[in-house]
Amino acid sequence: KGTLIASGFIEPGTITAAHDESGHASFTGTVSNDAQRAFETKLEGLDEITAEVYTATIKESIAANSRNHFGLEQLYEALLSGYITPEEAMEAYEKLGGELKLTRTAKAIKKSIEAKLKTAIGQPYIDFAHASLTDGEQVSLKSVVEKEGNKYVLLDFWASWCSPCMMEVPYLISTYAQYHDKGFEIFGCSLDDEQADWKNAAETKEMNWVHVSDLKGWSCAGAGLYGVQSIPANYLIDCATGTIIATNLRGEEVAAKIAELLD
What we know:
Layout: E1 16-19, E2 25-28, H1 31-44, H2 51-64, H3 69-81, H4 86-94, H5 104-118, E3 129-132, E4 138-140, H6 141-145, E5 152-158, H7 163-179, E6 184-190, H8 195-204, E7 210-213, H9 221-225, E8 233-238, E9 243-247, H10 252-262
Helix pairs in contact: 1-2, 2-3, 3-4, 3-5, 4-5, 7-10
């Protein structure tokens, strides 16, 4: 016996279910299910799936399915995963069928787009304050951005339970060690909800930068201001202008960007 992997849409019509030898289920017979199966079939037929090809295929699918629930869900996932920009997402949102815009998912998409547009490259950073890991006192992002000697601040949303976040830590540590004395600071905002987990991760990994949290998990007020719905998420702030100059730097991109600015 094996586990049947299923993903489909319950909607009016006759839905037919089938599965292959690997246990993957597919559903057909209704608009959204047929759209999902068509997308899966297209991916299966590609000789090579590079990031560029995958992104282009997703964008084509979103455009072709603006009036069914598969397109709606795909738009939401693409926005959260960064496959499309907030501007592209807003354009796709405006093309959604009228009834789809009344759904909870569509409302979440619009809210996320609006938050992301406010924190896009070129926008001024949004200030907030949470309790410090060191003494529990409130520390504001503004106080770090405006601190004498700081030239660039990386606002980093993370959590101890987030494996992808932990994978980024070595890159942050390396960049911090090399450029902190030149004006690079990190303002880490944790989405943990347990003080002990937050403290243990930061200290064990020797993440020796500024740490704050309101210990409210996904309800973190700071994360809400930046429309954060997946982590890790980061925003590089130019202290001289108070503007966001890069977002979601990953791996070696962090050091490369800071080297470009400070070397």
